[in-house]
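tool_call: predict_structure(chain=1)
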Amino acid sequence: MEVLLGKTVGELQEIVATLGMPRYTALQIAQWLYRKGVTTPAEMTNLSKLHRQLLADNYTCGRSPYARRQVSADGTIKYLFPTLDGQWVETVYIPEGDRATLCVSSQVGCRMNCLFCHTGSQGFQGNLAVADILNQVYSVENRQTLTNIVFMGQGEPLDNYDALMSAINILTADFGWAWSARRITVSTVGLKKNFERFLRESECHLAVSLHFPLHEQRVTYMPAERQMPIADIVELLRRYDWSHQRRLSFEYTMFDGVNDSIAMAKEVVRLLRGLDCRVNLIRYHRVPSVGLADSPVQRMTAFRDYLTKHGIYTTIRTSRGQDIDAACGLLNSRRDM
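tool_result:
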């Protein structure tokens, strides 16, 4: 049965016309789906009983409860959700003071095959539908407390571009959650086929997975570097104005003895000099069968201080949810089956 979640008002108008319902009911359905988060057509009480039954006979809302919930000692919560095609995907809720961030997945597994990412070891098992993406947002507990959404979960968001943008458009639409795009961040390794398109079509914040400033080193650990080198990514980013509210950041996971030296910090400065951006340093969370180790705190601090001294705003990101495998690079829904 087809789902309603993920449909725009225009698409809902086509549906209600097919069912012989008044055109205005499309907006009512959208409000029930996206503002009130109903799980069945029966809950849409300003529709007649006949119209609710027509919807129920032909459509489901598309909401699915989580199958598993794990709580970290630091308050981070990881959810396991079923997808419409019978697979599984992980989502992470991160509370911090008066903020609450939801880390959302866009694919089951990932085909970028970054050596240090546990999601990549799962392989690529499919794109999420728009309903699968939105279900992660609407079906977590305390969703009304969310202040930010980051597409940094399983998968490469720009590799599922159409579904990603459809979900974002609904979250930011007046008929949807009416969120500002500035509350949403999309992370990418820099996928050539959709990178520039995203810059043109979206006002969301952008986080680029940098990790290695040199081509020869980055291509060893991140195969996507072959089709869009980091130097080309940065050159493209220089054409855009990042001085207003839209934020550009670079994610830099630090590996002991690999990319954490001051010499590497100098290369980061050379690469990003003059670009209005920030750098987030991330502690590496060890992945089974990968011969990499996390960088010592002292070296991360020295790296941060060097970048800051040379004009690049840099922070060391606090690791969250490591004890439940919810931290950066650890999501992998295959092992839960």
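agent: The mean pLDDT is 94. Proceeding to next step.
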